[in-house]
Design brief:
This protein has 320 residues and is of the alpha+beta class. It is built from 13 helices and 11 strands. The chain is 42% helix and 20% strand. The protein starts with 12 loop residues before the first helix and ends in a 9-residue tail after the last helix. The relative contact order is 0.14.
């Protein structure tokens, strides 16, 4: 089981971050595929997931290829180009072309595709996030988050969860859409846990959470973002020299400690501003700024607009 490091019993960084991004999952349906078959996805606007119920397939991005077998689950971030096919060398049609000739996928939909050979069954769905622009989790997800059903250690939750999802999709009883969407939320969080437990494969922010020293620092930062953190204070908390701490933090998290704190404060501010009863002055104090003016300048520097404009629902430009 994943345990984050730190002194603050009960405080869970991953839970807090997941709450801030407001995860919304959707199971679109099931692919019934027979070899030869192949499809190409040129970057989805939302993150996608596939769960292999039977058979196997090959998933390839511009960077790597994975063989997926029955019981596997894979998460693919938005914008990543990839192909799914029964075997290397099989032609992959654009997924839009596959859908155009066989009907669009809707929640509970069924897609039959292929040449009549060896069969494979995949569940397909997507995730949507709100408030993700500055989230450390989504900024540092691996290109492919692959959870093996027969991995070591064994994952007793994966197969029964996938089968429950599949049975709900197949039966389509009243309320099935809500049930399978909530189960997909569970799959995503469990996949993150499995990735964190696989220390040899985990990297970036997820790996930092379970690092004995950096994880402790991240826990305290997230617990008290408004505290007057300094590099010296953070290094002392990690029981490291300032130089070694800064190097280790940047290597795992991808940015300097104080830059991370500033970005996290702005993310928290965006979450707090969802509450219409909270004034901007209160938001500023809650994320560590003495004045609304200094907060406003920092917010505009990171988000590209003033807090008031953001609160009115104007879409921000590209986050810096």
């Amino acid at each position: 089981m994943v345990q984050t490091s730190g002194d603050s019993a009960g405080f869970d960084v991953l839970t807090e971050v997941l709450g801030g991004i407001q995860l919304r999952s959707k199971v679109h349906g099931r692919y019934e595929l027979t070899a030869p078959w192949g499809m190409r996805i040129d970057g989805s606007p939302n993150p996608l997931f596939y769960a292999v119920m039977r058979g196997n397939c090959l998933l390839s991005t511009d960077e790597e290829s994975l063989t997926l077998v029955g019981g596997d689950f894979v998460f693919i971030p938005a914008g990543v180009r990839f192909t799914l096919r029964d075997a290397k060398g099989t032609r992959a049609l654009p997924v839009e072309e596959v859908y155009a000739t066989r009907g669009p996928m809707r929640c509970g939909g069924l897609l039959h595709y292929g040449g009549g050979g060896v069969a494979a069954t995949l569940l397909v769905g997507s995730f949507a996030f709100e408030g993700e622009a500055l989230s450390p989790l989504l900024r540092h997800l691996p290109t492919l988050l692959h959870v093996k059903g027969d991995g070591i250690p064994a994952l007793p939750w994966l197969e029964p969860t996938l089968r429950f999802v599949a049975s709900e999709v197949e039966a389509r009883q009243p309320g099935y859409d809500t049930i399978v969407s909530r189960l997909a939320d569970v799959l995503f969080v469990q996949a993150l846990r499995a990735h964190m437990d696989s220390a040899s494969h985990a990297n970036g922010w997820l790996r930092a959470l379970v690092d004995p020293r950096i994880g402790k620092v991240l826990q305290r930062i997230h617990e008290k973002p408004q505290a007057p953190w300094t590099l010296a204070g953070l290094a002392k908390l990690a029981s490291m020299s300032r130089t070694l701490f800064a190097e280790r933090f940047r290597a795992l998290v991808g940015e300097a400690p104080l830059a991370y704190i500033a970005r996290w404060r702005m993310h928290q501010a965006m979450v707090l501003m969802r509450d219409p009863g909270k004034s901007l002055a209160e938001v500023a104090r809650d994320v560590g700024y003495e004045t609304e003016s200094s907060f406003g300048k920092a917010f505009k520097r990171h988000v590209g607009m003033t807090p008031g404009t953001h609160r009115r629902g104007v879409s921000p430009p590209a986050i810096r």
